[in-house]
Specification:
seven-stranded mixed beta sheet, alpha/beta, 11 helices, 11 strands, 2 domains, single chain, Spore Coat Polysaccharide Biosynthesis Protein SpsA, Chain A, globular, four-stranded mixed beta sheet
């Protein structure tokens, strides 16, 4: 049976590497034109000591060799599947990635799984990555979403991509299914990968990215560089902060903080410009008032200007 047909079936095939019913996980990877990197992600997944029950690669209209690479992997491994979407002609960021993820997710019944993961197709990680991460979840019943930390591969060596410890990485979000369903999944908007973690906290869950040698992720392509340029990505980041409802003082803090990483100074300034420009033109914002109030209380607490909101101990 062709791998694409298996993806359409949506039935659960548990990996033979794992005991039946043990850490049942569904991994979904929306990819577009990842031919340069995808095989390295596949190699990392195949080497895992604890494999997912199903890994669905959702090809979002690639025009390069990406579908062929994914199809070969699906032919070789029963637990890997390929689902192809038509080419829309352009790479659609933010909401487009989640549209592809959701279309893949709709092929399955989440009650068949304990964990669900959104995983990018330009990552490498150690063979014990998922095993160690599952152990973190099992040790903390309030942990709703988690990841390791990302290290960017550069010409000058490895560079840590700075992400707050209270957020799982957008590139590799592993969720407890119960938590994922409670937050309503991902929103199809820029800053989806921040909104979800704050919704976790609102509902009493914890979100985390964890410093651990076994959980290091090698990011083969710079965050925000896949569409036009890193600089355009920083402007988009600023708009995302505005859309989410970020307090102006916290937006200023982000602007200053991000000046001290590549691209030096200008990257942070463009985040601030993206936020300010969105405010001046009256761009649309998240219309969930309770969420925005919680978000701003949390942000002011981070700045030491307000009592920290109640979170799980």
């Amino acid at each position: 049976m062709p791998p694409e047909a298996r993806a359409q079936e949506g039935t659960t095939i548990l990996s033979q590497a794992n005991p039946v019913g043990y850490r049942r996980s569904l991994v979904i990877s929306p990819v577009r034109n990842e031919a340069e990197y995808l095989q390295r992600t596949i190699d990392s997944m195949v080497a895992q000591t604890v494999r997912p029950a199903v890994w669905l690669i959702v090809d979002d209209g690639s025009t390069d060799a990406t579908p062929g690479i994914a199809a070969r992997a699906a032919e070789q491994h029963e637990w890997i599947r390929l689902y192809r979407r038509p080419d829309r002609g352009v790479r659609k960021l933010g909401g487009g990635v989640i549209e592809a993820f959701d279309e893949g997710l709709a092929l399955f019944d989440l009650t068949d799984f304990d964990y669900v993961c959104k995983l990018d197709g330009d990552l490498e990680f150690r063979p014990t990555y998922f095993e160690r991460l599952f152990e973190k979840f099992e040790a903390d019943p309030r942990l709703g979403t988690a990841s390791g930390k990302c290290w960017l591969v550069t010409d000058n060596g490895m560079q840590l991509e700075r992400t707050g410890d209270e957020f799982s990485l957008g590139a590799a979000k592993l969720y407890r299914v119960e938590c994922f369903r409670q937050i309503g999944g991902f929103v199809r908007k820029v800053m989806w990968d921040g909104i979800d973690c704050h919704r976790c906290r609102m509902l009493g869950w914890r979100a985390a990215s964890i410093h651990d040698a076994d959980l290091r992720i090698r990011h083969l392509r710079r965050m925000g560089s896949s569409h036009h340029s890193v600089l355009r990505g920083r402007l988009r980041w600023g708009y995302g902060q505005y859309f989410m409802g970020t307090h102006p003082l916290y937006a200023l803090a982000i602007t200053v903080y991000r000046m001290f990483e590549r691209p030096w100074i200008i990257g942070g300034l463009l985040i601030g410009l993206g936020y300010l420009g969105s405010w001046l033109r009256g761009a649309p914002r998240c219309n969930d008032f309770d969420f925005r109030r919680f978000l701003r209380r949390w942000q002011m607490a981070r700045l030491g200007l307000f009592r920290r909101p109640l979170e799980p101990e």
